[in-house]
Amino acid sequence: SEGKVLVLATVHDTFEEAVEERSYLVSFETLELALAFRRRVCLDNARDLPVSVEYMDRDAVDVIDRSGRVLANVIKVVGMSSPLVGVLWDVKLWIEGLGFSGSDLICDELLHRFNGWTPAILPTRMTDATIAMDHHVAMTVGEFGGGEMDRCLARMTTFQKEEGSAKVVVHQCEGKREEDSLTAFRFVAAPAFRTWCVGEGVQGISVDYALPKNGGGAPLLDGGDGVATPIKRMRYSHFGCNVVHEDIAYALGVDTHKAKYALKKEVEQQCHGKLPAEHGHGTEYVAPKATQERWKRMDPLNVMNPGIGGLNSNPRYQE
């Protein structure tokens, strides 16, 4: 159950490996076109789903390019799974925890300042597409021996032909280096947002929420109900399962707690989604009453993550 966690299992990766994979950056003129691509190409049937489908909007690619180049280029050079990435990240966390004035900001200030000294993450033709278009999908398709790749790519070709190559631009990665570049670009979205906020001297909030399988439109965030209009609104998602991450930047002095709960209201009441989703309620959000009762039944002693979802942290939930 999300929220209460007790791990009593080993993990076995049993997902079949593809005999061949190809990766693409597909750029769209509108979000509606991207959602149509999701329905008609990616999720047409359960037999030949893409290996991965990741969405990014205009603000996401802008922030990643402005503040995520250093980390992304390190990943491109040493590889996503290299221990060096973890070591460098631990060094960053160690510096941030030293406790002197500005220690928690200095690394991100430097990453932001020197970002432009490092190469662009994506190949030039893909970078040009991110400038020309506002919505993008990084997609990897796999062949598992049953013609899955050919069918998925045929649907993509048909979709582009029907909608027009001026509105749907497809770039295939040429070799592993470009595949790694595209993967790294999407991977650094969250840390790039923190670096951007620190470097620009603004504050930000990060949320994740799930939308209905046939939904996907952006919840309204128009400054109504006394909530300030954001400076930047990064939206990037696991496009196949419709779990959306939003990193939203506001000017200093804005009540970000109020802004976060205004978005939560919009997601749940107007979009029929759930916030939070992937990352759970934690100690920040109050879980629904039914969820709290389920947690109490499965953890009557309150020893697993006490205090989550609005519950108290006392033994046996004693008041």
- Overall pLDDT: 92
Helix share, percent? 40-55%
Distance from N terminus to C terminus (CA atoms, Å) equals 24 Å
Strand proportion: 15-25%
Structural class by SSE content: alpha+beta
How would you spell out the order of helices and strands?
Answer: EHEHHHHHEHEHHEEEHH
How large, in whole angstroms, is the Cα Rg?
21 Å
Question: What is the chains' assembly state?
Answer: single chain
Q: How would a textbook summarize the main sheet?
A: 7 strands, antiparallel
Number of helices: 11
Keyword list:
single chain, 319 residues, alpha+beta, seven-stranded antiparallel beta sheet, 7 strands, 40% helix
Q: Summed up, what is this model?
A:
The protein has 319 residues and is α+β, with helices and mostly antiparallel strands. Helix content is 40%, strand content 16%.
